[in-house]
Amino acid sequence: MKLMKLGARPDTFFTSGPVRSVYTEVATDLEIFVDNCLFRLHKFPLLSKCLLLQALCADSDAVELPGFPGGAEAFEACAKFCYGIAVTVGAHNAVALRCAAARLGMTEAADRGNLGAKLDAFLDSCLLRRWRDALAVLRSTPRHAAACEELGVTSRCVEAVAILATDPGGGSNASASAAAGCSSSLSSPPWWARDVSELGVDLFWRVMVAVKAAGTVKARAIGDALSVYARRWLPNGYLPAEEAGGGGVDDANHRLLVEKMASLLPAERNAVSCGFLLKLLKAATVLRASPATKAELTRRAAMQLEDAGVGDLLIPSCAGGETLYDVDAVMAILEELALRQAAAGMPEGSPPPHARGHHRRSRSAESSSEFEGARRSTSAAASHRAMVRIGRLVDGFLVEVAKDPNLPLDKLIAIAEAVPDCARPEHDDLYRAVDTYLRVHPEMDKSSRKKLCRVLNCRKLSETASMHAAQNELLPLRVVVQVLFFENARAAAALSGPTVANRVAGVKALLAKTRREADGGEEVVVKDEQRLRGLAAGAPGGGGEDWSVEGLKRAASRISTLRMKLEEDEDDDADDEAFVHRARPGLVRSASSRVRALCAIPAGKPKRMLSRLWPSSRSIAASERH
Question: 0.90 cut: is pTM over it?
Answer without folding.
Answer: no
